[in-house]
Amino acid sequence: MLQAAKKRPPVTAALRFGAILAASVPTVLYAFGVGRVRANWSCFAASYMSDVEMVSREIVLWGSLLLPVVLAGLLLYGSRWTTFMGVISICAVLLMRLVLVVGGLDHEACAREALPAVLPWSLIACYVLAAALLIMAGSSPSPGAGWRVAALWGAAVVAAWTTVDFGYVLLVDSGGISGSSADYPSSFWDGLGAWAFDAEATGLPLAVVALAMASTVLTKGWLGRLGGLLGVGFLLGFAAVGGPTGFTCYAPDCSESALSLVSWPSLLAAIFPLLAVYVRASRNGSGNSPS
To answer: Residue 170 has what pLDDT?
Structure first.
């Protein structure tokens, strides 16, 4: 497997990284509000969505959030089935999304009528591109990096904590959390912190983790290390400005501490890609091939 990794042309690694990047674009768009249900919290409490619709929406959204991590894990593991399993994963998530739209399970939380069946063309384009890039890359094994697969999923579990803890953001638009300072930022930094927390709650760190780990392992030379460090930088940025206290604790008697202003899930998630970058740099410095 190591010999196959050495013979792997750079274009193959670029295609595989591009597939993960394409699968991550819907998550990035979602963090900016594209594709969310438009409703405020008071209306959502009396939602007309059925239990089936709510569960279906959660499954589809989690499938989209975890898809970049799944693809990165498959590519880091390195198997003759990597391309096949990756394409199947992409098709499964896309099919679930299309069933949600075409099946009439997609409508406003505050309305009885279903939304018109408008196909999510941006998501379709991204997933078709991701599948095409995987197929173009071929089925030759990626570098064997089993411990990095464990590190990837460890980082993903930690990064997903805010999304799990504030799961209502998956269903409610960020502008509808009434009463919080996310609605009325008093300064640029408050607005930035509100967006960072919202992006964490909607799963953007999961895509960052997948891209950082994939860049470190799949891309050769300084470019791979740079990609990993950029991912670490983004996660540390979320940790610095995305703490929940500023817009979940706004009562007059609420006391803030320095520790409560830090987004600990993103801070802890940054450790894993940073470790991968350090190990790769140390092995390259000693003359050993990265694994």
So the answer is: 45
pTM, rounded to two decimals: 0.79
Closest CA to 212 of 256, 155, 170: 155
How far is CA 27 from its chain centroid? 6
Domain range spanning residue 265?
2-285
What tokens were used for 213?
């780990």
The answer to whether residue 291 is domain-embedded is no
**3-state helix/strand/coil string of the chain:** CHHHHHHCCHHHHHHHHHHHHHHHHHHHHHHCCCCCCCCCHHHHCCCCCCHHHHHHHHHHHHHHHHHHHHHHHHHHHCCCCHHHHHHHHHHHHHHHHHHHHHCCCCCCCCCCCCCCCCCCHHHHHHHHHHHHHHHHHCCCCCCCCHHHHHHHHHHHHHHCHHHHHCHHHHCCCHHHCCCCCCCCCCCHHHHHHHHHHHHHHCCHHHHHHHHHHHHHHHCCHHHHHHHHHHHHHHHHHHHHHCCCHHHHCCCCCCCCCCHHHCCHHHHHHCHHHHHHHHHHHHHHHCCCCCC
- Residue pLDDT, tens place only, 170-204: 444 433 333 334 444 567 777 777 788 888 888 89
Q: Is 190 inside a domain boundary?
A: yes
191-220 burial code (b ≥16 CB/10 A, e <16): eebbbbbbbbbbbbbbbbbbbbbbbbbbbb
What does the block give as tokens for 170? 């998956």
- Residue 159: count other Cβ atoms within 10 Å of its Cβ: 28
Query: Does 77 or 26 have the greater pLDDT score?
Result: 26
The answer to whether residue 279 is domain-embedded is yes
Number of domains in the chain: 1
Torsion of CA 271, 206, 85, 226, to 10 degrees: -50
